[in-house]
Write a structure and sequence with these properties.
about 190 residues, two-stranded antiparallel sheet, about 40% helix
Length: about 190
């Protein structure tokens, strides 16, 4: 296997990138200035040295605490519980949420060997002083629902409002193409106008 094939194989191991996409990336790098390849290599080499987990929320950061946890303008009485650090970035891009986050580090998935003990649930419980609301921003999957139900059960004894992000039809969606579960959740989560 030559250097080109090895690089295509490495890129294709990344989530969402198949062999064809990996090949396009590698050929783009080859067709570009060598500066791009050197910069990319340098950034990848130092990634684990510069980025670490925030000691408060579990998100990725260069400084501990992260910029969200350190921001005095954030509402620390609302914690948005998310599966992984990437979810934080996506929610932040929406510029709607002004509270703080807690990264679980996964979802309960017994078939994959992931139990509540594998997640940062104990750390979440240690952060509840002064918290008024927990928002469960977990994917509407079997694992996400299982995790949400588990968290709801253990948080029941705390004087905290627990909510979950709404799920249902996407804006611009067409009923014809909506699956039965999404349609069912759309009816259950309907709002008055």
């Amino acid at each position: 296997m030559n250097a080109l094939d090895r690089l295509v194989t490495l890129f294709s191991k990344l989530p969402g990138i198949g062999k064809k996409s990996a090949g396009r990336i590698v050929y783009h790098i080859l067709d570009s200035s060598p500066v791009l390849a050197h910069t990319l290599a340098k950034e990848l080499t130092t990634l684990h040295q510069l980025i670490r987990r925030c000691g408060t929320c579990g998100g990725f950061t260069e400084a501990d605490p992260c910029s969200v946890c350190a921001d005095s303008n954030r509402d620390k009485s609302i914690i948005c519980v998310i599966e992984n650090a990437q979810d934080m970035r996506i929610i932040e891009e929406g510029r709607e949420f002004t509270g703080v986050y807690h990264v679980l580090g996964g979802l309960i998935a017994p078939l994959d060997g992931v139990s509540p003990a594998n997640l940062s649930i104990d750390k979440l419980l240690s952060r509840l002083d002064g918290v008024d609301e927990i928002i469960l921003a977990l994917n509407p999957t079997v694992e996400g629902d299982t995790t949400a139900l588990y968290l709801q059960k253990i948080l029941k004894s705390y004087p905290i409002e627990i909510s979950r992000l709404a799920s249902g039809m996407p804006v611009g969606g067409n009923i014809e193409y909506i699956d039965k579960l999404t349609l069912s959740r759309s009816f259950k989560g309907r709002t008055k106008i």
